[in-house]
C-alpha cells in the first residue's frame, strides 16, 4: 500500500516535463494546518477596544454606554457557554437527540429574537416567528447536510454536529434578520396604508388584493440585506465561515466552495422564512370574509386595545 501511494509522486517528480514553476505538485507547498491559540490576555486587548465606542457615545451623548457594557458582557458569556456546550456535544458517539435538542433550542431562541426586534406585535406573532424560522431553516439545513455536503457518504452520521450545528447557526442567524425586517415592514405598511386597504375591501376587493402591495414590500425588505451581501461578497468583505476555515488551515479554494454553498443556503432560507412569516401574519390579520382587523396589531411596549 505504501509503494502504491508513493510511486505516482516519484514518477511525476522524475519524469514530468513541467518545470517547478508550472507543475502544481512541485510548486505548491502543503497548506499549514496549524492555527494560533489565543490567550485570555489577547482576547482582553480586543475587548478593551470597545472602550473607543464607549468614549464616542459619551462624547456625542448617545446614551449607549450601558447597552455597550451589557452587550459586551453578554457576548463573552454567551460565546463561552456555547463553546463549552459544543465541546461536550462534539464528543464522539453522542446520541442524535443531543444534536437535535441543541438545534431546537437555537431555533426557538432565534424565533423569539426576531420578534423582539419588531416595533409592532399581534397575538400569535411569537408562534408564527418560530414556525417560520423552524420550517425554513430546518428544510434548508437538511438539504445542505443530506444533498449538498452528503455527510452520510463520508462515513459520518447524518446528524454529525460538526456540520449540522455551524450550518444551522448561520442559516438561523440570517433568517432571523429576514423575518424581523419582513414582519416589521409588513406591520408598517398595514398601519400607513390602512385607509387604502379598507377602501379596496369596501369596493369588493379580496383580502389578497388588498394586502398584496404590503406583502410585496415586506418580502422585498427581508430579502434585500442578503442580496446586498451576495453582491459584494469576496470583494468588499470576506465572510465569517470562509475566514474561519482559512484561519484553521483549510485551503482557500476549499473554503471558497463552502462559502458559496452557505451563501445560497442563506439566500433561500431567508426568502422562505420571510415569505412564511408575512403570510402567517396576513392570515391572522385578514379574515376569510375579506375583512381587515387592524385592532389585532399593537405596539411593542403597549397593550392591545
Which features would summarize this protein structure in a list?
305 residues, mainly alpha, 71% helix, disordered N terminus
> What distance separates the N and C termini?
78 Å
Give the overall form.
Answer: globular
Please state how the strands of the largest beta sheet are arranged side by side. 1-2
Average predicted local confidence, pLDDT: 84
Main β sheet profile? 2 strands, antiparallel
Low-confidence stretches: 1-28
* DSSP strand content: under 5%
| Strand element count | 2
- What structural class do helix, strand and pairing data support? mainly alpha
Number of domains: 2
- Helical residue percent band: over 70%
Order of helices and strands: HHHHHHEHHHHHHE
Radius of gyration: 25 Å
- Number of helical stretches of at least 4 residues: 12
Outline of this structure?
This protein is mostly helical. The chain contains twelve helices and two strands, in the order H-H-H-H-H-H-E-H-H-H-H-H-H-E. The protein has a two-stranded antiparallel sheet with strand order 1-2.
Amino acid at each position: 500500500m505504501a509503494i502504491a501511494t508513493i510511486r505516482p509522486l516519484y514518477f511525476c517528480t522524475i519524469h514530468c516535463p513541467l518545470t517547478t514553476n508550472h507543475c502544481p505538485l512541485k510548486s505548491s507547498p502543503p497548506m499549514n494546518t496549524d492555527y494560533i491559540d489565543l490567550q485570555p490576555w489577547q482576547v482582553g486587548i480586543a475587548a478593551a477596544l470597545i472602550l473607543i465606542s464607549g468614549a464616542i457615545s459619551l462624547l456625542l451623548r448617545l446614551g449607549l454606554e450601558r447597552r455597550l457594557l451589557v452587550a459586551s458582557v453578554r457576548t463573552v458569556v454567551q460565546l463561552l457557554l456555547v463553546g463549552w456546550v459544543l465541546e461536550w456535544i462534539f464528543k464522539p458517539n453522542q446520541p442524535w437527540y443531543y444534536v437535535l435538542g441543541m438545534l431546537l433550542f437555537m431555533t426557538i431562541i432565534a424565533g423569539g429574537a426576531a420578534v423582539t426586534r419588531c416595533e409592532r406585535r399581534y397575538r400569535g406573532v411569537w408562534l408564527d416567528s418560530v414556525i417560520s424560522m423552524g420550517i425554513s431553516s430546518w428544510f434548508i439545513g437538511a438539504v445542505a447536510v443530506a444533498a449538498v455536503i452528503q455527510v452520510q457518504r463520508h462515513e459520518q452520521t447524518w446528524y454529525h454536529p460538526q456540520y449540522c450545528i455551524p450550518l444551522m447557526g448561520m442559516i438561523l442567524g440570517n433568517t432571523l434578520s429576514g423575518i424581523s425586517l419582513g414582519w416589521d415592514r409588513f406591520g408598517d405598511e398595514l398601519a400607513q396604508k390602512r385607509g387604502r386597504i379598507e377602501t379596496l375591501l369596501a369596493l369588493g376587493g379580496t383580502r389578497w388584493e388588498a394586502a398584496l402591495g404590503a406583502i410585496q414590500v415586506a418580502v422585498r425588505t427581508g430579502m434585500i440585506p442578503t442580496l446586498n451581501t451576495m453582491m459584494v461578497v469576496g470583494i468588499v468583505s470576506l465572510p465569517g465561515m470562509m475566514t474561519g476555515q482559512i484561519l484553521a488551515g483549510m485551503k482557500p479554494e476549499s473554503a471558497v466552495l463552502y462559502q458559496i454553498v452557505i451563501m445560497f443556503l442563506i439566500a433561500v432560507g431567508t426568502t422562505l422564512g420571510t415569505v412564511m412569516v408575512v403570510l402567517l401574519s396576513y392570515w391572522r390579520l385578514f379574515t376569510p370574509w375579506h375583512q381587515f382587523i387592524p385592532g389585532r396589531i399593537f405596539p411593542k411596549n403597549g397593550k392591545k386595545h
